[in-house]
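Dear Dr. V.,

Thank you for agreeing to look over these. As mentioned in my earlier message, I'm a first-year student in the group and I'm still getting used to reading structure tokens, so any feedback on how I've presented them would be very welcome. I ran two proteins. I've put each sequence directly above its structure. The first is here:
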Amino acid sequence: TLWDHFDVAGVPTEAEVEEILAALGDAEGPLSLPRLETRVNIRRTRLELLLKVLDVDGNVVRDERGYAATGTAYDHDHARYERLLAGRRAERRVMLHYLDPMGTDCLMELLTRALDDPGAAACGRCGRCTGNGLDVEVEDELRRAAEVFVASVDLPLKARRRWPTGLDVLGYRQRGNIDRSAQLAEGRALTGNESSSYTEAVHRLLAQAASGEELDEDALERIVDGLARVLARWPWRARPRTIVTMPSHTYGRLTRVVADRLGELGHLPVHHDVLAARPSPPQSDRGNSAHQAAGALGALELVGGPPAGPVLLVDALRRSGWTLTVAGVLLSEAGSDEVLPLVLHATTAG
């Protein structure tokens, strides 16, 4: 959960520290952050936080060339980090108690106690003290209008323009800007991190696809209708002439079903056998952009003839964006025209 994420933010694990110090120790000199990123499977923002902690503790030093290990032995202070986690979880409980709609404690007293005010006492003026809380009743007509508005807000997917630095360290020759002719066009997602009227249906289908359960027909009809509306609003330069599905060992079945139904609605041919994926760890197991791009480059391959004209590239889930990016490069280099990605759910839009 989001709470759990912030609980451990900036708190190193022994495994992460060992990975960082081993990478720095094996290097012939200081490593820049992008170069270090290719040697450790840790997300960029977390890697920066951990390096700051190690710098303060004297295990890492930074100069204009990058980061280097000092040789000082790392001693994981379990007691210190347990105290830090306990403090953060206590703060979480206070915040949840403050927000609890069924709570009865004075709001001002909760705040002043959290700030260690010895004079903390009930204020007699807040909604809990007076019993006059906010009216949260929403008229049905207003709720429906809000749902219609949220459902009509498009979620653009920005194309990646550059390969991450250091792919050569991971065995790939790609570097610099992705050729303009091979870049994806701006795509669309039906749902993202913010809740919408389609979120429940999309999450249900993703869970069913991952577990091998039968796909819920009502949910399928709901999201196909939503995707059709997205397509109707899409200001593309040229209408897609064909649909290609992204391969996935987890969500491939869902992707194919959705693509087939969109093909029927739009009278478009659907190709399930143009792209294939070799068995590999999922993108969610790859910590940063370099490893995610390398994973996609190593997993995806073109196995069928690429269709001509603009292509609608359909996928169930977008995490890093690198699998779609690599698929677009493969299709474009083989002769396809503009490639437009369309996904059910995107965890990131960048």
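The second protein is here, in the same arrangement:
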Amino acid sequence: MKKVSYVVMLLMLTVGIMAQEEEMKQKFIEETRVEAPVFIGETNLNDADRQNFSSHLQEELTYLSELDYLGKEGIVAIDFVIETDGSVTNVMVSNSVSKTIDEAVLKAVTNSSNMWKAGKINGQENAMDKTIYVKFDIPGNASHNEQARENLNLAIKQVSDIDKLENKDIDAAAKTKKTARKAKSAQTYLEYAEQYKPNDLSITYWQARVYELQGNNDQKEQKLDQYLELARHHDLEKSLEQDILMAVISFK
């Protein structure tokens, strides 16, 4: 009986300690004032001339040529630590676009060392982790977009014709032959569309649909995986843009 009582008392004591710890944590959070690090630019600039971080990145990345970023749009995520003296340490890529672009952004972030005002906790300077997102955005060429859309529509027309074959009273061999021919045409149109507009959600979806019609399940699954990944990046971009966490680097 005493053993049972000891166990009950121990459990009650443990629960009480956990409740106290949770209360202390909540109190600490409520009473803690956190000031995030602020990019202040070069120290020899006047306040009116100080750059924001997006401008700093834009200037740092101007040396990239068209060949470096052509067809490589996307978001680079860089994790780093801003020390109490404003220096930058532990710089690393957490989301990659390409080796050339990743290295360029890493260099730009590293070059921002001593251009930061350290973050503070309750008025005391503290080293803080930070993540920045850099979206490489190549303005769409109107004629390219038009060509991509035209070829996509032609591909969709071929798929629609295949669907209509199901309701036609023709022999199975002829139906199979027409389906294969139209699926091949759709695939060709989609390849043209992709050249004009790579990594497009609609084009990727219809590529998966055509592979399905051709009975190529492995290729279909690959395209569906690519579609889901593109959709995830699309949602991430929208979220980051709304939260103003992303610098957008546009190349003309």
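From my reading of the second output: The radius of gyration is 28 Å. The chain has eight helices and nine strands. Does that match how you would interpret it?

Kind regards,
E.
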